């Protein structure tokens, strides 16, 4: 079972790398708030259609336990976290924004231990530290602009990214907690991973709708929908992110410990590097390459440690 979670975690990292680039491109044209709402609507629609085709139901079949905890997870992870994350992309870029999320696995692992008694071995913690160390080494590399002058990262963007880190860690841990329930000392599944994704996104969408009424943001979103290029970027991002990416992340969280699953998904920045090279012709430094190698080595050790249990 854990191998299924490991594979899903790695696939999620690649999908989220694609999502970051798509939503950044769309957000630069119409703003992160509009992109966040549009992608949630599209994600819910796609997951609902999947459930209708496979199970013949518009709403997922899940226990009360799953509805409660996955809904809370959706508000924290799909609304609050992603609002902070997508806004941070506009300030510090998709590569640095996703790199900062590498700080969430240790926090998620601690929450997973507190909620479900999950724990990593000493080798597992060491492997996590190596993987996240490689990612962190890259995130603090100062970018050099076209004029040759090093550029720092705006404090507002970093604070938004930190908010996303906390939201992601709490959201992931609650997602795992919502998909399993203890009955008479036996762990029982409460819903399927893609059903869990639908529940999370429904709750996140409901929270965003309330937020939109409070700040009266409907006008700018309807205006954004007339931007064909922004909608193309956002639509592609919705397919690979809120639909496939979130679904695969639930598979990873259901079958692998929270600390391992979140560490694998934190490899998104490593997957972003070749994409920005190919798409944006961004130059990659030796430090970024070495950081990626260290991160991948840490992930390999983490996978070997978990597989050997």
Query: Uncertain spans, ≥5 residues at pLDDT below 50?
Result: 145-150
Cα Rg: 19 Å
Give the number of helices. 12
Q: Based on DSSP secondary structure assignment, what is the total number of beta strands?
A: 4
Describe the structure in your own words.
The protein contains twelve helices and four strands, in the order αααααββαββαααααα. The protein is mainly alpha-helical. It has one domain (2-121, 150-266). A hairpin with a 2-residue loop joins strand 3 (180-183) and strand 4. Helix 3 crosses helix 5 (122-139), helix 4 (104-116) runs antiparallel to helix 10 (258-265) and helix 7 (193-215) packs across helix 9. The N and C termini lie close together (12 Å).
Brief characterization of the structure:
The chain is 80% helix and 4% strand. By secondary structure, the protein is mostly helical. It has one domain (2-121, 150-266).
Keywords:
about 300 residues; mainly alpha; two-stranded antiparallel ribbon; 12 helices; globular
Explain the layout of strands and helices.
Layout: H1 2-30, H2 32-55, H3 64-100, H4 104-116, H5 122-139, E1 143-144, E2 150-151, H6 155-179, E3 180-183, E4 186-189, H7 193-215, H8 218-224, H9 228-255, H10 258-265, H11 268-280, H12 286-307
Antiparallel strand pairs: 1-2, 3-4
Helix pairs in contact: 1-2, 1-3, 1-9, 1-10, 1-11, 2-3, 2-7, 2-8, 2-9, 3-5, 3-6, 3-7, 3-11, 4-6, 4-10, 5-12, 7-9, 9-10
